[in-house]
Structure formats: C-alpha cells, structure tokens
Amino acid sequence: MRVLVVGGGGREHALLWALKRDGLATALFAAPGNPGTALLGTNLTVPATAIDDLVQAAAQQKIDLVIVGPEAPLAAGLADRLRATGRAVFGPGAGAARIEASKAYAKDLMVRAGVPTAASGTFTALRPALKYIEAGKEPVVVKASGLAGGKGAIVCASKDDASQAARALLDDGALGEAGKEIVIEEFLEGEELSVLALTDGERIMILPPAQDHKRLREGDEGPNTGGMGAYTPVGLTTAALLARVRREVLEPTLRQLAADGAPYSGVLYAGLMVAPDGTPNVLEFNCRFGDPETQALFPALPEGSTAHLAAIATGGWRPDRDVLEPAQAAVTTVLAAAGYPERPQLGVTITLPADWSDGQLLFHAGTTRAADGRLQVSGGRVLNVTGVGPTIADAQALSRAAAERVTFAGMQWRRDIAWREIARAGAA
Q: Domain limits of the chain?
C-alpha cells in the first residue's frame, strides 16, 4: 500500500514509525511532515489544512490509504472529500468530527445519549455566563467550545477566576473563533485517563489506556499545555472499568452519532475523569489519536497493530478481541521550547546525539531544517523522547536518559512523567 499520513507533528512521526515497523506500506508519505518523517518516507509540501491540495496530492501520488492525524482537517471535511474520490481514509467525516470541533455539540450529544459527564451550561454571551458561574460551585472549569490546540480548558479555583476566563474568551477574543462559544462545567474529582478505541462505527476495539500530563511543570504545576508527556499502561485500568467505558461511554456515543446522521469511523478518544466510585465521566472527546499519547501508544503495541487502521479504512474489519493489550510499557517525555506555552522561542538550534540506546525512540514535533542543514525549533512542543521497557519504571528511566542527551537553549521538560504509576507501584 501507498500510505499518506496527514500532519507534521510528533503524533504523525509516531504513526509513520509504526507503519514502517509493521511493513504495511510499500511507500510512505507525510503532508507536510517534519525532519523526522523525512527519514521514514517522502514529505509533501502541503499544509495539513489545505484540503483541496491534499486531495490533489493523494491522487497524484496514487495513495491507497490516507491516515489523518490532526483534528482541524477532519473538522474541515478532508475525510469526506477523499472518500468522495474513492480513497480509503482512516478518520471520521466532518459531521462526526463535531464531537471534538464543538464541545457544545459533544455535551448535548452526551446528555441525549446518557453518557456520564459533568453538569454544564453553554453560552455565547457574557452576562448569562457570569450568572451561571455565580450560581454554581467552586472550583469551576471554563472551556472554549471550538478547536484550541489542546489549550481551551481553564480550571478555575474561584468564581472570580472563572468570570475572568469567560470574559477573556467571549469579550476579549483570547482564543479567537474557538472561544466565541464557551462551555462552563462543574469540576470533577478523580484521576484522568485517556481511552482510545478503534471503531468502524459498530465494532469497537479498545487500545491500551494512557495518561497524559497537561501541566507544564513537575508535580502537575504551572499552566495547561497541549501535553508534556504520556505513558501506558495505566494501573488504574481494570477489565471491569474498560467494560464500563465500552458500555456507558463508547457504545451509546457511537449509537447517538449514527442517529444524528454522522456515523463514526476511525479512532474515538475519550478523555475521562475516573471518579473515586469508579464512574468514568467524560471530560472531552477527540476525533483522532492523542498527542503525545500516540508517541507512547504505538511503541507499546505489538507489531502489526497498524493493520487494524487499514482494515477499518478499506472495509471488512473484524477485530478478534475487545481490548488490544500492550506488548511493553512506554513513557514519552515532551521537550518544549523556551516560553512555551504562551510564546515559544523559535529558530533555536537543536543538538541531537549520534545514536540512541535500545528502547529509546525520538519523534520530531516542532522542528525544521535550516538552509544550512541545522535542525531548529519551529514549534512549542519540539521533540518527544520515548522509552520502551518491561515496566513503567524501566521505560521512564530510558525516556529521561534520552531527554538528557538532547540540547537546545531554554529546553523545558518534566522529569516526572508517569509519577502516579511509579507511586502506585511503590504502594503495591
């Protein structure tokens, strides 16, 4: 197969790496890709949001399968356009992608489907939003309804903070179009869990759950980011919990999407808050693989796992299990630019080691090549270093050791990725 992966971040590099490992493709392409994907296939100079150009490029390159990485092109209808030309695509159509593109729609869908989630209100005007905040409890969560690159959720300790956040989004346009509609939610207690499931709209196969680390600094301090690291497997996960997620979250959501005229095909990402009583409350849905979860997930999965993506896209998928178990543990550490997340410093030169040890992987995210060949910072999250080993502790040590060997000015990274799992193992 000739396979095109749309996107240019760490998630897409990890997808190409997995496709290469599994031998699924005779030729690999990325659009636009990055210096890391260039080592595995051919980069096409087409932005991930240039829908017409991507459709044309897929035709020119005689692509057999397109895997769409980011949410923006899915929300813009790329999968629909490609399918209309007879192309096999892994990723939902625009109607189904609303589950991420509009948090307001997702909340309404969950209520109609009976999916457990936080009580909330949706607003486009400031005055009723402020009244809702004042009538509620503290803390409170304010979310931009639209796509905000993983930075649209603001956890507010007080009603005053929540009112300021609502004003910044609705009146000041802090997140542009993404924040013109907001969702105000009750704050839920528990532990976060990322559950990703492959689906053709009817059948479901759950992937190894992962845990993301959103805060910038160690100890889960500092501002929210797009994600500073992730790991899998997660000890919080039990067979009983995954059965509840399937029964109470995934199945009713897929049924409701189909009833809404938007059947879902691809990977459905449920960001959960697992309550102390075990209830899997949905914080958010994503219509694509997570970033940085993917950079831990695919290295942990057994070889051949990407064949499921092709089978879903081409039809006739018949999963032989409810849950795809990991073959190893994996920990991914994000190396971020100085000034991230507010104002990342770009153009800084990156120095990488000549080689890596067994069990260490490097995925490019926000990098580019200068005219003279130097590797440079081109985004907030720059590189992802993944450690793979028999236990989370082994994988964490490998990931940290790899991070220590990368240098660029102002590099920010957390040395405590998977700290909850390490603590859990120590308490066992």
A: 2-93, 125-180, 191-427
Q: Which of 300, 245, 247, 291 minimizes the C-alpha distance to 270? A: 245
How many C-beta atoms surround the C-beta of residue 329 within 10 A? Answer: 25
Of 214, 190, 212, 185, the residue nearest 107 (C-alpha): 185
125-180 maps to which CATH number? Answer: 3.30.1490
pLDDT band for position 428 (50/70/90)? low
What dotted CATH number matches 2-93? Answer: 3.40.50.20
Token pair for residue 129?
């939003």
* CATH fold label, 191-427: D-amino Acid Aminotransferase; Chain A, domain 1 (3.30.470)
pLDDT (tens digit per residue) in 94-105:
999 999 999 999
- 382-414 pLDDT, tens digit per residue, is 999 999 999 999 999 999 999 999 999 999 999
Q: Which residues contact 330 (CB under 8 A, 6 or more apart)?
A: 231, 232, 296, 297, 299, 300, 386, 387, 388, 395
- Is the distance from CB of 417 to CB of 230 less than 8 angstroms? yes
Residue 251 backbone phi and psi in degrees, to 5: -65, -50
For residue 228, give the H/E element and its range.
Answer: none
pTM: 0.96
Q: Comparing C-alpha atoms, which of 250, 428, 374 is closest to residue 322?
A: 250
Q: What ranges make up the beta strands (E) of 145-288?
A: 153-156, 182-186, 191-199, 204-206, 211-212, 215-217, 221-224, 229-232, 266-274, 280-286
Mean pLDDT of 199-215: 97
Domains 125-180 and 191-427 share a fold: no
Around Cβ 57, how many Cβ atoms within 10 Å?
A: 19
Report which secondary-structure segment, H or E, holds 261. Answer: none
**Cis previous bond, 139, omega within 30:** yes
What the block records as the tokens of 137 is 């409890």
pLDDT tens by residue, 150-195: 778 999 999 999 999 999 999 999 999 999 999 999 999 999 999 9
User: What is the rounded distance in angstroms from the CA atom of residue 426 to the CA atom of residue 428?
Assistant: 6
Phi-psi region of 43 (alpha: psi -120 to 50; beta: other; left: phi over 0): beta
